[in-house]
Amino acid sequence: MVIIGCSHGIHLAKKIALSAKKPYAALAVEKFPDSETHLSFPVSVRGKEVVLVQSFYGCVNDCLVEVFFAAMTAKELGAKKVALVAPYFPYLRQDDRFYSGECVSLEVIARYVDQSFDAIAIMDPHLHREKSLKHIFRIPSSLSTANPLIAAYIKKYIRNAVIFGPDFESYRWAEATAKLIGCESATLRKTRYSSRKVKVALNKKIDLGRSHVVIVDDIISTGHTILETIKLLKGLGAKAITCICVHGIFAEGALGKLQKAGATVVACNTIPNPVAKIDVSTLLASALK
Ligand code: R5P
Fold this sequence. Notes:
The chain is an alpha/beta fold and 289 residues long. It has 8 helices and 16 strands.
């Protein structure tokens, strides 16, 4: 087996290889002046199981093209098997046709993945309407969750934590993490009006007293979901607020906005960013076994 770090997976690929005690190499990727992608394998992949590590953030579509090119190239060069490890996998929220004529993006990407790879491992995929990865991919798939690491972080650094999930789907992270710690949790009701406009509400009265409010969600993208949650919980008397997510995309300056709103922000390192303090590499390495 050889672990290959793709352009947006390098930050984790080396650590995964170390933890799994497997050889590591970085895929050589460059851009032509017209923005076409050029890539090559710096080591022989003939007869090997190749594991591509790629996280899909920033120029998401370029990241996708890169792994499809790399997977087919590895097979042409004689790789025995090609697997994809995706610390953050994109398009999972576009899993339905919400308006007539829309592309169900996840369906398209999943079929490309099926054609290109022999197996896929994803960290905390955003499963909502699709209940399992088996419903999305036809190739063998596996899922790891950062919940135990998030729980360990909270136990170590935060006293009197009360965990809030900002919407129904967040129970997989918020409620599950609260159970691991044995603390109280509550789930908010979110209404999304557009990519940048959401409203959240709490169904029950809650006394935040001297609690440290911890908002846990899988993804922070524009940050509007968490900003609204902070506003609501501050209105209920929250003083200390920490927001923890698995995938810190932090689009459109979201991190600065959340910090300005008075919250401490912590993320896992599925996506590199200044607050990626929770290392998921050992979990991803164990998905390779
Ligand atoms: C969606 O349900 C996810 O769990 C997140 O709550 C959502 O993606 C966050 O998006 P944003 O940060 O743009 O509000």
